[in-house]
Structures are given as C-alpha cells and as structure tokens.
Write a structure and sequence with these properties.
- With 274 residues, this protein is an all-alpha fold.
- The protein has two domains: 3-131 and 248-270, no CATH class; 137-239, no CATH class.
- The protein is built from nine helices and no strands.
- α1 (3-31) packs antiparallel against α2.
- The longest helix is centred in the last third of the chain and has 59 residues, at 212-270.
Length: 274
C-alpha cells in the first residue's frame, strides 16, 4: 500500500473510532440521565479552537509544532469529526435562541466552506500546473497591460505594412474589449474557454481575407488571445483559492468567539462557576 493511501486509511480509522467513542459515551450519559451536552460542548469548543490554530501554525512555521502536513491532516479529520460532535451537542435538531442559531449558522457555513476548500485545494492546483506559464496573482494587471499593448502594436504594424484595415477593424470590433477589460464575476466563479473558442473561430474566418503580411500578424493575434485566456483562467483559479481562504477564516474567528461566549453563558445560567 502506498504511504499516502496508508496514511489516509489510518487517519480515517482513528477518526471513525474517535467519533464512535464520543457517540457511545454520549448515548450512555443520556440513558443514565446525565448532562452530555456540557461534555460534547467542551469537545466541540476544543475542536474549533484547534482548527482555528492551523492558520497560526502556518504563520509561525519555525515553531516546533510538528510538520505543516501533519497539522493539515489533523485539521481535515478533526474538522470532519466535529460535524458529528456538533450534531450530538444540539441533539440533531435546530437549536433555539438567537445566539444558538447564530452559532449553528456560523458552524455550518464554516464547515461547508471547509469542504469546498478541501475539494478546491485538491483539484485546482493540478489545473494550474497544466498551464504553460505560472502567473503571480499580484502581477496580473501588469501582464494584462503588456498583452493589450502587444496586441495593439501587432494590429498597427499590420495596417502600416499592408495598408489594409481588415485586421484593424476586427480588432476594434471584437478584440479590443477582450484585451482591455477583466472578465466578469461569473467567469471567476465558473471559468470556461467558450469566449476563447468563439474569438479564435471568428479570427479564423477573417484570416481567409487577409494578405500575406496580415497573415503573419494574425498568427501573433492567435497566440495573444490564447495567452490572455490562459492568464484569465489562472487568475480565476487563484482568485477562488484566495477568496475561499478569506471567507473560511472570516467565519472561523467569529465562530470561536461566539462558541466561547455560549459556553460561558451556559455555565452562568446553569449555576456553575467558571
């Protein structure tokens, strides 16, 4: 068995065993009329705090807190197991009260965003790796401007060399906006190459009317259209990863604060002392 598969199997078995143990203990407590909600609450708050610490671990890699890979594995499996603990804590029903409902909503959103992130961090990097050029996200605007300027020079050189305006007119009608403006929000949410295929098909249709000097410049436009589409595709995938992390962390910290407040109020109204 490969090391990766063996590690996944081991982590899965440990997670299932831990969840089964907590579930059995909770059922046993309820059968003897015990207070299992407090104990599952402790486990849940501990899990949420541990999950929130993963971002701290990434910011402080020099600390001897085992490897980042091990922390990520623990983050994934404890996050998955926390869903069962959360269900046990609320009794598998919609909670009552504003604070309880707010915590439930925050937890569900954070959990779903974590699942989305788990899928994206496994599927998007291989798609980025297949592209011929790796782009740094912060340099996107500069590279877009370079491609736009290069496309404009190609068209102007074509007009000056041939004296014909066919390629220039096509650029003004169909390619100028493509090179000058970023994609719309829908593209970042679901990037496709439909616009690329459409523009290349139209450019191919125009090509038959071009002279030999224009043909050479047309080939350069083909390459620039492809490069711009590859750039947009890479930026869209990177934007997904960055946007997902922003949302996930933005949900995690309010969840930590609300959970701690909920625990304090539960002890306070139960008559216990902190």
């Amino acid at each position: 068995m490969r090391p990766f598969a063996s590690r996944r199997l081991t982590n899965s078995v440990l997670t299932v065993a831990g969840v089964a143990g907590i579930t059995a203990w909770t059922v046993w407590q309820e059968n003897k009329l015990g207070r299992a909600d407090f104990h599952t609450g402790y486990v849940l708050i501990g899990a949420v705090l541990f999950l929130a610490c993963y971002n701290l671990r990434k910011k402080l890699p020099v600390l001897p807190w085992t490897t980042s890979s091990a922390w990520l594995q623990a983050h994934i499996y404890i996050g998955l197991a926390s869903a069962v603990v959360f269900g046990l804590h609320v009794g598998w029903k919609v909670p009552n009260g504003f604070l309880e409902i707010s915590i439930a909503v925050l937890y569900c959103l954070a959990f779903v965003s974590g699942i989305v992130g788990l899928i994206w961090t496994r599927t998007l990097p291989p798609q980025l790796a297949r592209l011929s050029e790796e782009i740094i996200f912060e340099r996107t605007a500069m590279i877009r401007a370079q491609l736009r300027d290069r496309a404009q020079r190609v068209v102007l050189e074509s007009v000056h060399a041939s004296g014909a305006t066919t390629l220039g007119e096509f650029y003004a009608e169909r390619l100028q906006e493509y090179f000058e403006r970023p994609r719309r929000l829908g593209y970042y949410l679901w990037p496709t190459n439909s616009l690329r295929r459409e523009l290349l098909a139209e450019l191919t249709a125009v090509r038959r009317y071009l002279s030999d000097p224009e043909q050479e410049k047309c080939e350069q436009l083909f390459a620039l259209v492809r490069r711009r589409d590859d750039l947009d595709f890479q930026v869209a995938l990177q934007w997904r990863l960055k946007g997902w992390l922003f949302v996930h962390l933005g949900l995690t910290y309010p969840l930590v604060l609300a959970s701690c407040l909920h625990g304090w109020l539960a002890h306070l109204f139960d008559g216990g002392a902190l």
